[in-house]
Amino acid sequence: MKLEQLGPYAILEQLGRGGMGAVYRARHTETGEEAAVKVLIGPLALDAGFRERFEAEIETLKMLRHPNIVRLLGYGEQDGVLFYSMELVRGTSLDVELKKGRKFTWEEVLQIGIQAARGLKHAHDRGIIHRDIKPANLMVDQQGTLKISDFGIAKLFGSTGMTSAGGVIGTAEYMSPEQADGKLVSHRSDLYSLGAVLYCLFAGHPPFVSKSVAEVLHMQKFATPEPLRRFVPDIPEEIERIVFELLEKEPQQRIANATLLARRLQATLYGLKQQEWEEQQRRQSAPQAPAEPGATVAEEQAEADQTAAFTVELPAKEPLGKTRSPGPTRPEVVPEAGEETLATQSPAGEAPQRAGSLGRTRPDSQSPRLQQQTVAATHAAAAEEQAQTTQARFTVVREEELGKPLEEEESPWHISPQTWVLVAVLIAIGLTIWYLAQPPSADRLYGRIMAAAQSKDEDALLDVKGEIETFLGIYSNDPRAVEVEKYLEEVQLLQMQRRFALQAKRLTRSRNISPIQAAYVDAVRLAAQDPAEAREKLRALLQLYEGSPEAASLDDRRCLELVRRQLEMLDRQATPFVKKHLRVIQRRLQTAEKLASKDPQQARRICQAVIELYGQKHWAQEAVRQAQRLLERLPPAKKVARSE
Questions:
Q1: Which of 65, 83, 489, 575, CA to CA, is 20 to 30 A from 558?
Q2: 113 and 262 assigned to the same domain
Q3: Are residues 128 and 265 in the same domain?
Q4: Whether residues 142 and 260 fall in one domain
């Protein structure tokens, strides 16, 4: 059935379609405002329990009001069709840009990550998890503002017992390991998906790709992504580290929350831009060589472009692109979402308006309050008329309703003394909570970190991982940040070491680790029985891979650092181990020397046993050669005649 009208909206064209429904561009018949209308598929709308969940989910979506989240406008039902309208983003999705072959710079990826993290923080603070972060759900409007769409839809459909194409809810390529395993999700599941999106923007494809959905889900749980440096050789190391922290298999090992992620991305962007700016200043202050005769205007312009400064914000006319200012400019920190004025698409010749105006022009003869009442009355009248003619219902979600989870009650005029006491107590509690919620000072965090670092207990450093990440996220410009960064690397090494130690205890080895990591796990497993032989294996591993292109990934470089540390420990363990075994072997060889003349057969058996047991041991080669020399001096073994 072709849709022409849903509630107050006239359907204009279909924008997209998926397993859960379709999205249309529509125009409000009374106000002329365009919107995106999402229509849910028929089988779900017929489910009795689904209708109640739909209404409850709309109440959840009404809690979201943020510049980086697509705004809900209204919802309703017509002729058994459930639908809701949302802000129409005039721009493009990251998915479309990727399919066009768009190459994103690291500045653009950081800007996208910052805005997405801010939108997710707003939702996570209200207990809402997206569950389906992917390039198709990340839109960029014509002002360069990123907006997250389809909030709450995965949660809504996840409780219906129905599945999308392929048998899973969500998108396998961007799904967190706990989602792929059917476990409960948390806000860190969204951070994993965002990490997969950032990986895709750099590499041009998701971390794991396969023709089989089941294979992708398996890889999400067990495989390790290819290093980003293989696709973007000049990617800053800190950016690669952040992306791979987001892609950790265990939620507890990922960046703690969207707030910390946004701060780390912002600090990284500022730091890298500061380095570029300082480099440009040095180049410009350097003495310039006289221009060669015959230089063209185009060559001079190209040279000027190379030293032009940059802007941190995305441009207004070219989404996701980079703009250049006339001269060097110090980079500025991008303000938090909600502190900046967002403009919406306006008709030609009109000035952009704030997000709250939804793109409408305000008549000069009406005050803002009167206009709001007029628009509300117009919507209500239109909805009533539509219901009478088509048996439809539609509820408008006004701007002031968004972001208010609970109804506000008017305070009574007369307040009793007991109430004043209660208010004072609540204010005191609120101030206490506010004080406790303030981020700890740099000195306080640094003191905790140093106390753990100086402790002899390895777990102490692991216990302050959150404090380390908070320090680097908030106080990245502190001179002590360089030292704290080393402790973060130490924590990550300890986590990797324990993960490998756990694999070494298992009978089978994971197939999804690199050859370097596999050889290290084998050596760790061998160290429990023969530390001296394990030491030789690790030495060979270090000689083979240290400084080689095969050890270019971050995980492999960390693994080689673990090899060096393990060698130091095995050097201390192997010496008494070797001495003890060599003493036993020497006593047995001395016994064989004494038996050489009296019982050469027994002496031969002792020598052959030494060669068989210790012939492959590097540390026992001298004893093995001694057994071989004694064996050569013994008379040949007597042949036993067989009776016929």
A1: 575
A2: yes
A3: yes
A4: yes
Burial of 327 (0-12, 13-18, 19+ CB in 10 A): exposed
Closest CA to 619 of 569, 588, 581: 581
Distance between CA atoms of residues 404 and 407, nearest Å: 7
Q: Is residue 232 part of a domain?
A: yes
Helix axes 515-527, 481-505, angle to 10 degrees: 70
> Average pLDDT, stretch 585-594?
90
Residue-wise over 557-586: b if at least 16 C-beta within 10 A, else e?
A: ebbbebbeebbeebeeebeebbeebeeebe
Q: What pLDDT does 632 receive? A: 87
What's the DSSP call for residue 492? H
At 151-183, the pLDDT tens digits run: 755 454 444 333 333 334 558 899 999 988 888
Give 360-411 as a DSSP string.
PPPPTTS-HHHHHHHHHHHHHHHHHHHHHHH-EEEEE--GGGTT-SSPPPPP
CATH code of the domain in which 190 resides: 1.10.510.10
Q: What is the largest CA-CA distance in the chain?
A: 129
330 backbone φψ class: left, alpha, beta (φ>0; ψ -120 to 50): beta
pTM of the model: 0.50
Dihedral angle of Cα 84, 90, 91, 92, to the nearest 10 degrees: 30
Q: Residues with catalytic annotation?
A: 132
Condensed to tens digits (0 to 9), the pLDDT of residues 610-640 reads 888 888 888 888 888 888 888 888 887 665 4
Residue 428 has pLDDT above 50, yes or no: yes
Report the number of distinct structural domains present in the chain. 4
Tokens at residue 254, please? 């990922």
Of residues 458, 461, 439, 457, the one with CA closest to residue 449: 461
Q: What Rg, from alpha-carbon coordinates, does the chain have?
A: 34
Could you tell me what percent of the chain has a pLDDT over 90? 24
What spatial distance separates the first Cα and last Cα of the chain, rounded to whole Å?
99
- Summarised one tens digit per residue, pLDDT across range 362-378 is 334 344 443 444 444 44
Sheet holding 72-78, edge to edge: 5-6, 9-17, 21-28, 34-40, 81-87, 72-78, 392-396
Backbone angles phi, psi at 5, to 5 degrees: -150, 130
φ and ψ of 318, to 5 deg: -120, 95
Q: Does 579 map to a domain?
A: yes
Is 345 part of a structural domain of the chain? no
Q: State whether 125 and 191 are in the same domain.
A: yes
